[in-house]
Amino acid sequence: MKVVKFGGSSLATGEQFEKVINIVSDDFERKVIVTSAPGKRFTGDTKVTDLLIEYANAVIENVDSTNIVKEIISRYREISDHFKLDGSVIKLLKDKLVNLTKTNFVDEKYLMAAFKAHGELLNAILLNSVLNAQGIKSVFIDPKDAGIIVHGQPNDADISPETYLNLDKLQLPNDAKVVFPGFFGYSQDGSIYTFSRGGSDITGALLSRGLHADLYENFTDVDAIYAANNHVVKHPQAIKKMSYREMRELSYAGFSVFQDEAIIPAVKGQVPVNVKNTNNPSAEGTLIVPEQFLFNPSNQITGIACSKRFSALYIHRYLLNKEVGFTLKLLQIFYKYNISYEHMPSGIDDLTVIFDRSKLDKTTIKHLCHDVKEILQPDYLEWIDDYAIIMVVGEGIAHNVNTLGEIIDSLTKNNIAIHMINQGASRISIMIGIQESDADEAVKQIYKTFFN
Ligand SMILES: Nc1ncnc2c1ncn2[C@@H]1O[C@H](COP(=O)(O)OP(=O)(O)O)[C@@H](O)[C@H]1O
Ligand SMILES: N[C@@H](CC(=O)OP(=O)(O)O)C(=O)O
């Protein structure tokens, strides 16, 4: 049995829905279909999830939301009209959307999560109706009825262990496909929580694990995962096969094509993942498998990812290396402000802490720097707002002593300053901290060194 997830680009229009219908009806094993919200139809278009965020903000700010509701519904109507469905489905979707304003939410975060989740919820209801209208028997299952229990933050949920106990008991129909909305689950008290952005991939992965799928097919709009972002490097090489841990590192550092947390349920369930193209389903795509299945990593490196979402705190203090409790005091400050950090490379008298910028606001940064100055009394402190991380990843790195040297060479030859470099923490990757404005050029140069 296969779980198949379709991204927003695959479900953005009626024409895209047709391709999806052909893909699922082509293979009996494609049993569980996970939907995203309708994505961009063309460059410059807006994803339905972003329209829903606008809708939620309008409700929070108590301003008129009539137009935004119209715009959201028009996205679903366009698809419904393509298949000439009668008006009852669109009426149902509109009622669900409007009813959101009549629901009581604990606070604005809960409201935001519920509004956002409706992108995938309504698309799943619509796809289920379209499939049945086309004579393909299918049933819609709500994450609540499947027992998808989550915890953590309403807009950044974690999967609770009960989810897998519940999925073990879930009976799938013998004679019908199942349509399942991605991106959200329910807390113990019945509130909707979404995963982080791109989180429909997580739903596909957790269902693959919980339902013991043989394969998790993740359909998107590119023929494969490429060795570098195709918006940065022209015609990058496709990756045919990679390990789970290579995917984890690459998606963490910017390969948005597969959400970075989504690999974890696949690893735990040992379900292989195949990233494929809805617009060209006969292309092999990229297969992501346990590392022991990659007997001979042929390439020195597999991929180069880059993420510009970071900020860094640089601290210099003489004799930092001898001071007992320095890092402890720093961590206590992070704890006080409920901040997690991403990396903390250190030297004798220096320490850089790298943060995910999206998790911090200006006031928190101000408080953080103030406390660090007051409590730790550094000789020098700098907040670097525009920090990028490049991750050069490959199971082959451990077998090639030259990799690090070649990377440094390719950057220094092109006058690109390296702020931080770290090899060893993970045996399969080299992490490079760099100024954001240098990031794209750095990716191009490293790519040229290893692939051209
Ligand atoms: N290394 C990469 N390989 C393939 N695609 C990539 C890579 N890096 C970034 N992308 C981008 O990811 C996009 C697909 O991801 P996403 O927008 O999440 O798709 P979906 O709408 O299917 O969920 C592609 O269109 C591509 O431009
Ligand atoms: N629709 C959600 C979740 C998601 O996974 O979307 P996509 O499959 O289009 O990346 C988002 O935009 O974040």
Quickly describe the structure.
Pfam families: AA_kinase, ACT_9. The protein is an alpha/beta fold. It has 14 helices and 19 strands.
Q: Uncertain regions: pLDDT < 50 for 5+ in a row? A: none
Which class of secondary structure composition applies to the elements? Answer: alpha/beta
CATH superfamily of the largest domain: Acetylglutamate kinase-like
Strand arrangement within the widest β-sheet reads 3-6-2-1-9-13-14-12
Q: What name is given to the CATH topology of the largest domain?
A: Carbamate kinase
Beta-strand content = 15-25%
Mean residue pLDDT: 95
Helix fraction by DSSP (H/I, runs of at least 4): 25-40%
Radius of gyration: 23 Å
Strand segment count = 19
Q: Give the assembly state of these chains.
A: single chain
Describe the global form. globular
Describe the structure.
Helices cover 37% and strands 23% of the residues. The chain is globular and about 70 Å long. The protein has two domains: 2-291, Acetylglutamate kinase-like (Carbamate kinase); 303-451, VC0802-like (2-Layer Sandwich), CATH 3.30.2130. It has 452 residues and is α/β, with parallel strands linked by helices. The chain has an eight-stranded mixed β-sheet with strand order 3-6-2-1-9-13-14-12, with helices on both faces. The protein has a five-stranded antiparallel β-sheet with strand order 16-15-17-19-18. The structure holds adenosine-5'-diphosphate and aspartyl phosphate. Residues 7-10, 36, 39, 198, 220-222, 225-226, 228-231, 255-257 line the site of adenosine-5'-diphosphate.
